[in-house]
Amino acid sequence: MQAIAVTLAVLGAALFAGAAVLQHREVADLYGQPLPRERVLSLRRLARIARRPGWLAGFGLAGGGTIVHAIALALAPLRVVQPIGVLAVPVAVLLSSLRSRRPPSRSVILGVFLTMAGVAVFVAASVGGSTGNPPPPGSTLPTTLIVGGVVLALATAGLAVGGWLRCVACATAGATAFGLLSALMRVIFQEIAAGTLWYEQPVLGAAASAVVALVVGGWLVQQAYPSGPPEVVVACLTVVDPIVAVLLGALLLGEGSDTPVATWFLLGGAAVAAAVGVLVLARLHPDAVAARAARSNPSRLPEPSRGTAQ
């Protein structure tokens, strides 16, 4: 079952990467590249973007990725499924290279290798650990509120500034919300497996919180797109999301409680290697290099699209 879950998680990562590239491209086409500093991407502007075919295609990919990811969470623990999402970064690099018809540089290939190697070791070390149990009564709501407070603080800070800080803060806030979403989905599956009926409070409460986390996380990711290239958003999502989900899986569900200390050190080293790979990709991705070149030479900036909302 865990092998099936890993396969589904890889497929989900590819779908999420495609969604990020498509949706970011639509925002860039509408507002120009590099994108202008905005205090907030209003609902009116989001509605305008959401009517574009590319954005809708990305939304469809994201929806498919969410379904596949949910099935994977029903089959395996969070610490097996969540880290695989990091593969969305090299997939995004590959899609960008295909779109631009330029092969990735050796530095980008190094980043891809570090990311994939770190994820492979993490998953291999995670398989076979304890799958966890339903959370103790009354523990889900306080945990959700605490994580929600972190999301609110990051979102408030991000929307108060502009540029890269806004991109990173909003993407990190969205990733934290998505990490909570994954943990809540796993809580639901564990509750049902333990005999809790779908209409009972533990399941309904977790489901309602999961819907809120999905909507808030999606909105924050859209807020991050106008302030930075897709690799920065994808990097934040694929590093922060699994960390939050795995920590919540350990705290709420007891996943990995039988894991030896040496294995935890191995998991930490693998996570660091994956994070280094993500950082290399985030800095040397072709879009990031082009954005830095444009900022250093403003005369090369393209004119905003004629449909830009004022």
From TrEMBL:
Q: Which domain of life is it from?
A: Bacteria
Per the record's keyword annotation, is Metal-binding included, yes or no? no
Looking at the UniProt entry, the stretches that span the membrane are 67-95, 107-129, 141-161, 168-189, 201-220, 232-252, 264-282
Q: Tell me which InterPro entries the record gives.
A: EmrE-like
Q: Does the keyword Transmembrane helix apply?
A: yes
Its keywords, alphabetically, are: Membrane, Transmembrane, Transmembrane helix
Q: What is this protein called?
A: Magnesium transporter NIPA
